[in-house]
Amino acid sequence: MEEQLSLKSMRIFFRICLLASVLVLAGCASLQKGQEGPRFVAEDTSRTIDLTVAPLDVWERIRRGYAIPNLNSPLVDKWTLYYASHPDAMQRMATRAGKYLYYIVDEINRRGLPTELALLPFVESAYNPAAYSHAKAAGLWQFIPSTGTQFQLKQDWWRDQRRDPIASTNAALDYLEYLFDFQGDWYLALASYNWGEGSVKRAVVRNLAAGKPTDYLSLSMPDETRNYVPKLQAIKNIVADPERYAVVLPLVDNEPYFVSVKKSVSMDFHVAAQLAEMPIEDFQALNPSFNQPIIVAQQDHEVILPRDKVDIFNANLAEYKGELTSWKIYQAQTGETFTSIANKFGVSEARLREANAIPAQTRNASDQALLIPGPAGQGISLAPSGRSASTPARGKPADRVRTHVVRKGESLDSIARQYGTTTATLRSLNNMKGKTIKPGSKIRVPGTGTRG
After folding, report:
1. What does the pLDDT read at residue 112?
2. 197 carries an active-site annotation
3. CA distances from 395 to 116, 324, 392 (A)
C-alpha cells in the first residue's frame, strides 16, 4: 500500500513539473511537432502586468493583449531599425490610427483575439482608410474586391465598404479568425492574409513532400510575404517600448472616438461636414467609403462622427434652412445625350460630365443613372455654441460670416464645387470682376449674408 502511495505521489509530482515546464515555455515560439532544424524564436516574451490597474490609454490596452509569440530574425531587426529611424513617419501613422484604434481594439478584445492585430493596418495601409494599391486593394485593411465581396463588403456606385472603418474592421477580423482556424498558427494566418490561404497551404504541402519544416520562416514565399510578419513584429516592438526607440506615440484615450449616426434624409457630403462643424478632411477620414458627393437616406447609409460632434450636428440640422442636397438622381432614357440632359436641368455639359466622371468622347447617355448637380449649402446657419440637439433655436437664425482661405492649386471653379455653388455667386459675394484668385487670400462663401 505504501509503495502504491509512493508511486502515485511520484506521478503527481511528475505532472506538476511537466505543467510548470509548459508554463515557463509558453511565451516562446516552438518548432512544430516532429520538425528539426534552426528557427529564429523569441528568448522570452513573458511580461508582468498588474491587471488591477486600469490601462492609461489604448496603447497600453494593446500591450496588455499581446498574445502572438515574438519573432526574432534579421528581417525583424531590419524593419525595427527602419521604423525607429523614421520617427516622424511613425508618429503620423500613429496619429491617423488614433481615430480608429479604440473601436478596433474593443472589437478585438470582444472576440478574444491577440491585440497585435490592431497594428496590422500600420503594415497594410499606414492607417490610411483611403489607401488604394496597385492590386486594387482598398482601405485600412486592404481588401481586394473579390475578398471584400466574400466578406459582405458592399462595393457599388454609392459606397465601397472596403474603405468603411467599421465594416472593414469587422470583415478583417472575421477573415483573420477564419485564417487562424484554417492554418492553426498565427504566423501562417498572417502570411495567408497577405498571400492567400491557398498559396500558403501549397507552400506547406511542398515542404512536407520535401521533408522540410513547415513553419513560417521555412516556407518559400514572395518577398512581400517574407517581410510581412517581420514588419508587424517591428511595429509591435516599438509600441511595446516607444521610449527605447525614441518614438513618441500620441495619446489615444481609452474611450470611443466616434459613433455612427443614422440619417433619415439625404444630404450632400460637404453639407454634412458643415453641419458637424468639421473640416471636410476630418469628415472624409471618418467617412471615406462614399463614392458620390451625396449621402442617400434610401440607401440606409450612416455617417460616422466624433462623439463630441453628434449634438452639434443634430442641433445644426434642426436649424438648417437651405437645401440639404444639391444633387438629383436621373435615369437617362434611350436616345438621350449628355447635352440634352444638361439642357433639361439647366447645367453645363462640362459640369454634368465632371460630376459623373464621364469622358469627353462618350456621347450616348442612355440607360444609366446620373447625378445632376445644383446649388446646395447656401444660407447655412449654424446653431449657437453650446446649444444641444434637444433645444433647437426659435425664430430666424442669425447669419454666420464664413470665409474660405484659398489653398495652392485651388480655383474659383473648384471652390464653387466644394461649397455646392456657382462661380457667379462667389464673384457676386466678393465683388470680383474676374475669376483670378491667389493662394492665401480669403473669400466669402454662400451663407455669409454679407457682401464686400
Report:
1. 98
2. no
3. 54, 20, 10
